[in-house]
Amino acid sequence: MIAVDRRMAEIRAAGRIRATGRRGLGEIAIAAAAADPDAVVVREGDRAVTRGEMLSLARRLGGALLDRGVAPGALIAFQLPNWWEACVINLAAALFGYRLLPLLTMYRRAELLAVLPVTGAAVVFAADDWRGMAYADRIAALPLPPKHIFRVRGDRDDFAGLLSHAEAPPALPLADDAKMILFTSGSTGRPKGVIHTHASIDAVIAGAGAFWGIGRDDRLYVPSPIAHIGGSLYAFEFPWITGCEAILSERWDPETAVAEMDRHGVTFMAGATPFLSSLIEAARAAGTDLPGLRRFICGGASVQPDLVRAGLDAFPNATVSRAFGSTEVPLACPGIRTRDEAGPRADTDGECTAEIRLLDPKDGEGEIAFRAPQMFAGYLDPADDAGAFTGDGFFRMGDLGRIVDGRFLRVTGRVKDIIIRKGENISPLEIETALLRHPAVRSVAVIGVPDPDRGEMVAAFVLPEPGVAFDFDAMTAHLSALDMARQKFPERLEIVDELPLTAVGKVRKDVLRARVVPA
């Protein structure tokens, strides 16, 4: 287990955390609730939660945790869909100095075992039963599960009982303290814990909110998972810091989304490529151009310029653009400022608001590195910091790019070997390692293949052992037996007689991509 306090002390000693003068969410929420307690913070279905109510619920939840011996500084996790209860958990953490560990609902036993023991989470809030999955029961069945497992909704709802506790006085953490640890797949095949502080998250919202002009009249539609950096920002932070309202959707259904966006007058949405493409189709089928929508931000996977232009045509009042960032440096390029610029700049990934540097540039192209107030503090495991930063504190994104007209970024490729499927990072090495555990697999290479619905789909090239059969069903059954998240399962399997190799024996994935991607 890696102690967060010790890790934060190491990061401070390295000089990567400096006083910013920013506030934490707890302080911001207390002031906002006092100013207008009846303003709605978040909606989910027919449930609307106001500032005053959410602040009260968060103080009750904090009091219940304190009574159970969960001290400030403890790590509390949640594995929930986009439910309003998660917003209360986030605010309670901000008010009482708990560190938050969001767990994607796609995580199964393999991913949970890679994350929970490393962090030593004291508390987990998990759905009792959602879409046929008993999340809390699965966590309870892990070796050495967290001490406190609280079920949310369902027949065994613990959360409602916690909220009956008396309100406790907040104990606000320092703005430069660790607020949230998000795990992201890396090229090492092992998930990496990204530590954000209260100040770095506030900086994301302040910067992007000002760039987009988000305010009291805005309503944000949030179908992106709240355990992902994007969904968490839009659901948890934007309503308090900018005054807007978040509308949560627990699953992406484009027809439902169009109806809800029209009904609520949604003005803003962000999502990966599949969200935009399916929203365009559903809006056309419904005979609406979503007149209230004034901005759509698309990122997280390859976004073709034609898709951006199709969005501009479909939604005539909206600025539709690509955006670029990562869990480590969210919204480094928050998009294009105006609709007039959006069409001509559809082939870029947005305007850089973070300080950018291209490392080792050749013909104007180099590895993208950022330094910005919204940059994370460091990785939970200090070994992951090695090579991640330049000597003067720029974070190496692992992507290649070039600067266009002095202020726009165009991403041209990747240094890191990552697949982005429906906005989620997937490590090919993790899948390769899992497939190599099958006795019929002699060698394997996994790549991402462009796909209009997913952004990228996962393709596996397998060299079987001589005389041994291996097929798609065998692959799926094997990964299912390992209890790997379904989103990581290859959608395509190619059985090969050999894999193309470099002189030093490394698989030529560029050659494999050329086999399946038209030139």
Task: Walk me through what this model shows.
With 519 residues, this protein is an alpha/beta fold. It folds into 3 domains: 25-40 and 49-172, Rossmann fold (3-Layer(aba) Sandwich), CATH 3.40.50.980; 219-414, Rossmann fold; 427-516, ANL, C-terminal domain (GMP Synthetase, Chain A, domain 3). The chain is built from 16 helices and 23 strands. It has helices at 4-13, 25-35, 51-67, 84-96, 109-119, 135-140, 159-162, 198-212, 229-242, 254-264, 273-286, 305-314, 339-342, 428-435, 472-481, 509-516, and strands at residues 40-44, 47-50, 75-79, 99-102, 123-127, 148-152, 178-184, 192-197, 219-222, 245-248, 268-271, 295-298, 319-322, 355-362, 365-371, 378-379, 395-404, 408-414, 419-421, 424-426, 441-451, 455-464, 492-495. The strands form 6 sheets. It has a 7-stranded mixed beta sheet with strand order 2-1-10-9-11-12-13, with helices on both faces. Strand 12 (295-298), helix 12 (305-314) and strand 13 (319-322) form a beta-alpha-beta unit. The longest helix has 17 residues, at 51-67. It is globular. The model has no long low-confidence stretch (mean pLDDT 93).
